[in-house]
Structure formats: structure tokens, C-alpha cells
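Ops channel
N.P.: pipeline sanity check, posting one input/output pair.
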């Protein structure tokens, strides 16, 4: 199962995310659910850091990626992460039982 954890600040804004796991629909490298999630996550991380130049701590491990905003003065980071969250909800409907989304208050 793919686990997507989103971090929410006291002001209810999204401050980061962590995504790990494997959907288990097919072999590694052949799994369309994993490819869909990976692509969305990488697009979001690259947009946050490269296009918007927001200060964020990004970690990429073998089976996990996490992004935590260090600062988000104008709310662009919150909205970009919200876009990822919305997309993952759609993917979780399409690939039922393969993606679990949770929230953690920070």
C-alpha cells in the first residue's frame, strides 16, 4: 500500500508531505498506480523547489519522498501541496485499497 501523510500547521495550512510504499498491483517498475503517484509527487516537489523557489527540505530515499516547507509566506506552498492531495484522492478512488491518505498536525 502507498501511504501518503500530509502535515498541517496550526493555521490549517499544509506544510509538507511524506509518501512511501508500493501499491502492489504489479511488479516494481510496472505498477501503474505507483507510477501515477510517483509522477504527481515529483511534479509537486519540483514545482515547489524549482519553479516557485520555495525554501523546503526535500528527502528522497529508496522507497520514500518527503517535503517540508521551511517557510511559506504567501501560501503558494500550501496550494501546491493541496493540489497533490486532491490528485491523490482521485487516484485513491481509481486504485481503491492501494493508497492511504492521513494527516498529522505539526
Amino acid at each position: 500500500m502507498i501511504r501518503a501523510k500530509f502535515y498541517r500547521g496550526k493555521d490549517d495550512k499544509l506544510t509538507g508531505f511524506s509518501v512511501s510504499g508500493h501499491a502492489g498491483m504489479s511488479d516494481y517498475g510496472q505498477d501503474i498506480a505507483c507510477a501515477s503517484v510517483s509522477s504527481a509527487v515529483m511534479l509537486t516537489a519540483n514545482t515547489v523547489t524549482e519553479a516557485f523557489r520555495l525554501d523546503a527540505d526535500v528527502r528522497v530515499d529508496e522507497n520514500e519522498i518527503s517535503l517540508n516547507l521551511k517557510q511559506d509566506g504567501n501560501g503558494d506552498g500550501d496550494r501546491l501541496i493541496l493540489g497533490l492531495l486532491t490528485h491523490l484522492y482521485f487516484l485513491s478512488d481509481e486504485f481503491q485499497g492501494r493508497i492511504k491518505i492521513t494527516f498529522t498536525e505539526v
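N.P.: looks fine end to end. Residues 32-51 form the longest helix (20 residues).
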